[in-house]
Write a structure and sequence with these properties.
Blueprint: E1 22-26, E2 32-37, H1 38-48, E3 51-56, E4 63-67, H2 69-88, E5 92-97, H3 103-118, E6 122-128, H4 137-151, E7 155-157, E8 162-164, E9 167-174, H5 179-186
Parallel strand pairs: 1-4, 5-6
Antiparallel strand pairs: 1-2, 3-4, 6-9, 7-9, 8-9
Length: 193
């Protein structure tokens, strides 16, 4: 059976199910063949052995593509994957620390987080308590706050840190600032309406 991940499926009219008096026909490389009657378009389809696929039925005249339908579906799935990837904005990158991390290592994690966030990725900060360190969870929370303070220009927390097992987890999303909003932040509050 079909997967539930792709709940919205797009259906295309093909071949004999396309019924318009006149159509604009394009080839597989999106080059325009011309405006033809439906009979002429079907003749082209039989000559080439390719399918007729409705691209835009609302256009005047409707746009029909001359292409192998399996190839067309493959191209559409690749296009939708690229759109989803763009919309998602990247991956989630994990950075691990202990509550008593050294300053140089901490600074390295901060630089990495800034790099990840500025390229559109999310960051999952994981502070691992070892042995009896779990009894002093406040050090983990202080470290998380210190980390957030260092990256507040490019990232913001998606909530409060959560203790899962012996790890304190904090998700951080990239901050998208426009030049205008940066200028408004620097101006006095009474100017913001």
């Amino acid at each position: 059976m079909g997967s539930y991940r792709n709940q919205v499926k797009k259906f295309y009219k093909i071949n004999q199910y396309i019924d318009f008096p006149e159509v604009r026909l394009i080839d597989e490389d999106n080059h325009q063949i011309g405006v033809l009657t439906m009979a002429e378009a079907r003749e082209k389809s039989h000559e080439t052995g390719l399918d007729l696929v409705e691209i835009n039925g609302k256009a005047k005249p409707p746009v029909i593509k001359l292409i192998d339908f399996a190839k067309f579906k493959y191209q559409e799935s690749k296009k939708s994957q690229q759109e989803k990837k763009g919309a998602k904005g990247g991956d989630t990158k994990e950075l691990q620390m202990t509550p008593f991390i050294g300053q140089i290592d901490f600074d390295t994690r901060v630089k990495k987080a800034i790099e990840f966030l500025t390229t559109g990725n999310k960051v999952k900060l994981s502070i691992k308590f070892q042995g009896r360190q779990i009894a002093r969870q406040e050090f983990g929370h202080q470290l998380a706050q210190k980390f957030l303070a260092k990256i507040n220009e490019v990232g913001s927390a998606e909530g409060d840190p959560k203790l899962i097992g012996k790890r304190l987890i904090l998700s951080i999303s990239p901050v998208k600032k426009k030049k205008e909003s940066i200028n408004n932040e620097n101006s006095p509050p009474q100017n913001q309406n």
